[in-house]
Every structure is written in C-alpha cells, then in structure tokens.
Amino acid sequence: MNRLLIRIATVVSAAILLCGSAFATQKKPHKMSAPLCPVCHMPLSRHKTAMNTVAIRLKKGGPIWYCCSKCKMPASMLVMQAHVVHHRKVVHHAHKMAKHRVMKHRVMKHKVMKHKVMKHKAHVMKKKKEEAKITGGR
Asked: What span, in angstroms and rounded, lies between the C-alpha atoms of 114 and 110?
C-alpha cells in the first residue's frame, strides 16, 4: 500500500512538472516585421526617410507606411498630403462660389427682365388710356 501511494505521488508530481515546464517555455509571439510593398516588394518604413518618401496605406483606415518613390503605386493606396487636400478644398470652394454667383446673376437678370416687362406693360396701359381720352372712349 505504501509503495502504491509513493508511485501515485511520483506520477502526479512528474505530470505537474511536465505541464508546468510546458506552460513556462511557451514563446512569446515575436513582433511582426515591416510589411512588404505590394508593388516593389521592398520592406516599408513607419517613418519618412531619405529613401522612403511616399506615404501609403495598405488598407483603408490602416497605419501610414512609407515606400520608395520609384514604384508606381496605385492612387487608391497613396495618402493625400495636406497641401493637396487643401488645394482641392480651395478649388471646390471657388467652383461652388462661382456657381453661386452665376445663379445669383441669373436671378437678378430675371428680376430685371420682369421689372422691365412690368414697366413696359404699365407704359402700354398708360398710352391706351391717353388714346381712349383723346378719341372719347371709342
């Protein structure tokens, strides 16, 4: 009976040691290296450098990576620079304002024409009344 208990204790302690060492030696996942450029297959950089000057995003809303300026990157992957976005907003605003001025001009032109027509009608009516007075209402 004593021997049986010793054997069971030995087996249990050996199992605990093996399981404990197996959990303790699990490797931590290593950090992913920089992704490769889908065009030139060179590693991308997280920061702008002398060699990597073109800002791109591999997926929409993802982090910005920098690649060399020599590869022909699709426009959908390029990150818009601030001055380009500003320029587009300025151009859009100028176009919008020009459109507004044209519409305002059309409205004013319409009002002027309407005023001229009304003035002309009033003038014609006045002439008709004067003719009616001269002819005696015939």
From this structure: 6
Copy the structure tokens of residue 73: 């990157």
Residue 64 pairs in a beta bridge with 57
pTM value is 0.38
Please check the confidence at residue 18 and state whether its pLDDT lies above 80.
no
Burial class (CB in 10 A: 0-12, 13-18, 19+), 38: middle
Q: How many Å apart are CA 14 and CA 104, to the nearest integer?
A: 91
Question: What's the rounded Cα separation, in Å, for the pair 65 and 52?
Answer: 9
Rounded Cα gap, residues 86 and 46, in angstroms: 24
CA distance 46 to 67: 9
Residue type, 31: K
Extents of the domains making up the chain: 32-79, 81-138
Residue with tokens 């929409």: 60
Please list, in sequence order, all residues whose beta carbon lies within 8 angstroms of the beta carbon of residue 49, skipping any fewer than 6 positions away. 66
